[in-house]
Design goal:
By secondary structure, the chain is of the alpha/beta class. The chain has eleven helices and ten strands. The structure holds NADP nicotinamide-adenine-dinucleotide phosphate (NAP). NADP nicotinamide-adenine-dinucleotide phosphate (NAP) binds next to helix 9.
């Protein structure tokens, strides 16, 4: 297995991890594939409060050598909500601390300084080990970094694949310079790579792969995994896909083939190339959910008063 160094830490993350979004509808199958993944040398498992599968992931990782990454949802970015969310995730995951706790999306309705103060408190309390972000643009990263008092942002999880590759050289370069690792999500375009719409890209990968005796998926992942300061977290739910994905490592596409893929152009605009506008668009959603948080809090305290 190849590893990358996480941010400015000495932590080693496997180049290939497993993403668990939509993994969990079949609990036994999910647990089986996560365990099998870990027994094949992968240590990075990514989940999120939003995926509602932390209990299943928790069951799968018990007693395993794992680097567990989860994310707190943007509507929980006020201090008290972060602290509560972390406790709930720890309970569901049945672990003493979370290796990497990530802010899932920027939320402009909450001051990043308040959010990160809470995150730093969680590190001090030993509940989380490292602080990461996800879907952050350069300007959002800069603001976040300048709000940190004691610790550093170690990673930025962003969409990155042959289909959605234009993450902007400047974001990659910014992360490299500032020792922020990139965790590439949806590295198979959320499965779109296999759809008719993208058949031209798929044929190209197939053609290149035939020279190496590799599949289009392996070529797509190898193209991504050759990049420095980056690891990728495909979601897969079968042993067959696990083994195929593992075989995207330990060999290298030649430069001319990388260039051919580069020159093909990207097929789909990635969210990360328009992070600030997307974040603005999503802000009302987070605000509505935050209002719900507030209502729940009031209802709970009224319930408590009645009981008292
Ligand atoms: N931070 C964020 O905002 C964010 C957003 C999206 C995703 N993520 C993370 O990134 C992870 C991965 O992204 P994703 O789930 O969107 O999509 P993805 O990993 O790009 O694609 C997943 C799809 O590819 C299929 N697949 C995997 N390996 C394959 C293979 N060897 N051959 C053929 N098909 C294969 C899977 O099928 P099977 O399941 O049948 O194997 C699944 O349908 C998520 O699980 C999540 O952890 C983060």
């Amino acid at each position: 297995m190849q590893f990358i160094k996480l941010g400015n830490t000495n932590e080693k993350l496997s180049k290939l991890g497993i993403g668990t979004w939509k993994l969990g509808s079949d609990k036994d199958k999910a647990i089986k594939i996560i365990k099998e993944t870990l027994s094949n040398g992968i240590n990075l498992v990514d989940t999120a409060q939003m995926y509602q599968n932390e209990e299943i992931v928790g069951e799968a990782i018990q007693g395993e050598n794992v680097f567990l990454a989860t994310k707190v949802s943007p509507h929980n970015f006020h201090e008290r909500d972060i602290l509560r969310s972390c406790s709930e995730s720890l309970q569901k995951l049945k672990i003493k601390n979370i290796d990497l706790y990530q802010l899932h999306w920027p939320n402009p309705s909450v001051k990043i300084s308040e959010t990160l103060k809470a995150m730093e408190k969680l590190v001090d309390e030993g509940k989380i080990r490292y602080i990461g972000v996800s879907n952050f643009s350069i300007s959002e990263l800069e603001e976040a970094m300048s709000s940190m008092k004691k610790y550093e942002i170690v990673s930025n999880q962003i969409e990155y694949s042959v289909l959605t590759r234009d993450i902007g050289d400047s974001l990659s370069e910014f992360c490299r310079k500032n020792k922020i690792s990139i965790i590439a999500y949806s590295p198979l375009g959320s499965g779109k790579l296999f759809e008719e719409k993208y058949k031209e890209m798929f044929s190209l990968l197939h053609e290149i792969g035939s020279k190496y005796d590799k599949t289009p998926t392996q070529v797509a992942l190898n193209w991504l995994l050759q990049k420095e300061n980056l690891c990728a977290i495909p979601k897969f739910s079968s042993r067959e896909h696990l083994l195929e994905n593992l075989d995207s490592l330990d060999w290298k596409l030649k430069q001319n083939d990388i260039k051919t893929i580069d020159d093909f152009g990207q097929s789909k605009k990635p969210l990360s190339s328009m992070l600030n506008p997307v974040t603005k668009r999503m802000a009302p959603l987070w605000s509505n959910l935050m209002t719900r948080n507030e209502k729940n809090r009031i209802n709970n305290s009224e319930d408590k008063k009645e009981k008292d």
